[in-house]
Specification:
The chain is α/β, with parallel strands linked by helices. Helices cover 41% and strands 20% of the residues.
């Protein structure tokens, strides 16, 4: 296989070549399962923290998956736009019942509990840089899970330390636990908050070990990953221990035996797809008592009856019996009833906040008026005293000390009064530009409370 040479003489000397998407055009081996699809990304050419192995990791992983019957797309050294476009294209290619695999090797960062994959054109200085231009793993899971898949796998060899050194892969220390949806497995090259070896040979330690076992016939993925975990932990004196977050409901074999292939085909024919859609996104979803994710989502289920549970603070909990037969796609879009007590509590809290904001706005305007009035009052006070002093000074003869003292003091007081008066005028002038009390929002909340109380 040809290799891309990385010219590190400048920041992006061969950017046009590095961001190209390379499709594996070789036909899958005989007997390949057309429902297996993979997107493999390896980023090495980071301008401030290049890595030696991700490009090799991705090439070797893509080649292996292709030989195992996956329709594989390989992206080497992807900038943000190309990575997003590749993920979109990959998600659009998935069909109900497919098995999808996403593999990434490169820098990875977690910010505020969210895992991000780093494109080669991002050199993060602040967390906001990552949030703006990183590729959120949650987003990838969301795109993939919308396709009614049989199974989905995300393999992330991206748990490296601070990307501003030349031998590590992550800004903060490691990635964090990734929440999964039903029929999904996320595999990390090391545990939460830990860092992984970039390797001293052609491949990173985790990917090298994974490739060692992935062709083993009849080895179910959980057993395969147990072998990988043992080998990597042993090689690093347990400094690196691969971690798995899984909600799989079926066995999966990269290299199944003939018997296992028959069983997989029979299970696929029997399963049905349940698509759960709710008007309010983010509802907790459980199936047969097992919490599997949040709406909207789609899952592959064995035929028969299942209890679908939905819960959300603003709605009454729902438990509905849904039945499906093999090969069917069942849409579940319930019209849930609002949780009156929770909704009332939310509106009361919003009413309190809105009332405080209105009261604060009135107070600020009132305080400005008081300051302006005080300033004008002080103007009259000091101006009056100053005028009296000037008048008294005028009663004395010219060039006498009393005349000079009274008049100097008088004019000074008149000046003070004038300055204070200007401040008072300014206070009154700024009042029209001050934020008006937002009574419309308060009125709207009060109307919602009345409607809630009046509803049956």
């Amino acid at each position: 296989m040809s290799r891309i040479r990385l010219n590190r003489g400048g920041p992006f000397p061969v950017a046009a070549l590095l961001i190209a998407v390379i499709l594996f055009s070789a036909a899958p081996f005989a007997g390949a399962d057309s429902g297996r699809k993979a997107l493999v990304i390896g980023n090495s050419a980071y301008p401030t923290a290049p890595l030696a192995n991700p490009e090799n990791d991705a090439r070797d992983m893509a080649s292996t998956l292709t030989s195992l019957g996956f329709e594989t797309t390989l992206l080497v050294n992807g900038a943000q736009g190309v990575m997003l476009a590749s993920i979109d294209e990959f998600a659009a290619s998935l069909q109900a019942g497919d098995t999808a695999l996403f593999y990434f090797a490169g820098h990875g960062i977690q910010i505020d509990g969210v895992n991000y994959l780093i494109p080669i054109d991002l050199a993060p200085q602040m967390p906001d840089d990552v949030k703006a231009k990183g590729i959120a793993v949650d987003g990838i899971l969301g795109r993939v899970s919308a396709a009614h898949l049989k199974s989905a796998f995300l393999i992330l060899d991206a748990c490296r330390d601070n990307p501003f050194t030349r031998t590590t892969r992550s800004l903060s220390r490691g990635l964090t636990i990734q929440k999964t949806q039903l029929s999904t497995m996320v595999v990390f090259s090391t545990g939460p908050g830990q860092v992984a070896s970039d390797g001293s040979g052609r491949n990173g330690l985790f990917t090298e070990t994974l490739l060692k076992y992935i062709r083993t016939q009849g080895l179910e993925i959980n057993s395969l990953l147990n072998q990988v975990r043992r080998d990597v932990a042993s090689a690093t004196n347990e400094l690196q221990v691969p971690f798995v977050s899984s909600s799989l409901t079926e066995n999966f074999y990269f290299t199944p035996t003939a018997d296992q292939s028959k069983k997989e085909l029979a299970a696929s024919a029997d399963a049905f797809i349940l698509s759960i859609q709710t008007k309010t996104a983010g509802m907790d979803v459980s199936i047969d008592g097992l919490q599997i994710g949040v709406s909207p989502l789609s899952v592959s289920l064995p035929p028969g009856a299942h209890i679908i549970g939905l819960s959300h603070p603003d709605f009454d909990p729902s438990n509905q019996r849904i039945e499906g037969v093999g090969g069917a796609v069942v849409l579940y879009a319930p019209d849930l009833q609002p949780n009156r007590a929770a909704r009332r509590a939310t509106l009361l809290a919003e009413e309190t906040q809105a009332s405080l904001e209105v009261a604060l706005a009135h107070k600020n305007i009132g305080d400005a008026k008081i300051r302006g009035a005080r300033a004008l009052g002080n103007t009259i006070y000091w101006g009056g005293i100053g005028a009296v002093f000037v008048y008294i000074g005028g009663m004395f003869q010219q060039d006498t000390v009393p005349r000079a003292v009274f008049q100097d003091e008088g004019w000074a007081m008149l000046g003070i009064g004038g300055l204070i008066g200007i401040l008072g005028v300014i206070q009154f002038a700024v009042i029209p530009s001050m934020p008006e009390p937002k009574t419309d929002r308060l009125t709207d909340i009060e109307a919602q409370l009345k409607a809630l109380d009046a509803s049956p």
